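4.2 Preliminary Data

To establish feasibility before requesting continued support, the project team ran the inverse folding procedure on a target of 235 residues. The structure was first converted into the token representation described in Section 3, and no sequence information of any kind was made available to the design step. The complete token record follows.
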């Protein structure tokens, strides 16, 4: 049996002010598939939605080319989106999703919502995903400054989600991997508590598990009001 070419580690934890953890993750190095889902806060059964996202992704077979696997993942999430839409007729049951697929030296990031994918490469941190949020839309479409967009009462509202009010539209980014790359998938409860410098510093050395523990230690020093989840992948 061939050794798994990727190393990874993952952790999720309920926020200090939360009654239950509405985050969930997938850590499948043997399948080259990882994901983070964050149930929509304030909506009914956010934890059910995030766990449904992860359960459906876990059931996918790691077969075919990377392009075929991306299409299978998209189809899986779109079917779940329709099902959650029917189940949530009397209230939204939704979740963000960010997934990473690896095949050889190629990577694909697929997402909807504001859970993020970062890449640490050559001592620089890059945010690969772009938040699907009202904050981003206000800056892009209405040309508001960052401060003006942050002041908007709906700034944190999501514009895309699995099980959202609109049919699911997933965004996909593909890239080639390089030796030394580190990928981070995380929920907003993690990245909103840390600066860009802190995120990069935590990913700069050590094993995947050490990186995850370093990230959590940094967040848990503070109020950690939201649930936090991180998946670190070393191709």
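Position-by-position output of the design step:
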């Amino acid at each position: 049996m061939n050794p798994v070419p990727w190393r990874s580690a993952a952790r999720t934890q309920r926020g200090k002010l939360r009654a239950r953890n509405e985050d969930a993750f997938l850590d499948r190095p043997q399948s080259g598939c990882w994901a983070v889902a964050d149930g929509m806060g304030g909506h009914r059964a956010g934890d059910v939605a995030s766990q449904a996202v992860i359960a459906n992704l876990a059931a996918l077979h790691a077969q075919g080319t990377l392009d075929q696997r991306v299409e299978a993942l998209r189809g899986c999430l779109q079917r779940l989106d329709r099902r959650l839409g029917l189940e949530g007729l009397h209230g939204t049951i939704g979740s963000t999703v960010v997934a990473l697929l690896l095949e050889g030296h190629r990577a694909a990031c697929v997402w909807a919502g504001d859970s993020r994918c970062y890449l640490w490469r050559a001592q620089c941190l890059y945010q690969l995903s772009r938040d699907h949020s009202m904050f981003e839309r206000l800056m892009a479409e209405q040309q508001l400054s960052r401060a003006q967009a942050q002041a908007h009462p709906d700034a944190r509202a999501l514009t895309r989600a699995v099980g959202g009010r609109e049919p699911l539209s997933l965004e996909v980014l593909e890239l080639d991997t390089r030796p030394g790359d580190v990928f981070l998938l995380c929920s907003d409860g993690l990245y909103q508590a840390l600066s860009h410098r802190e995120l990069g510093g935590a990913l700069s050395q050590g094993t995947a598990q050490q990186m995850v523990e370093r990230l959590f230690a940094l967040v848990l020093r503070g109020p950690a009001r939201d649930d936090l989840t991180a998946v670190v992948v070393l191709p």
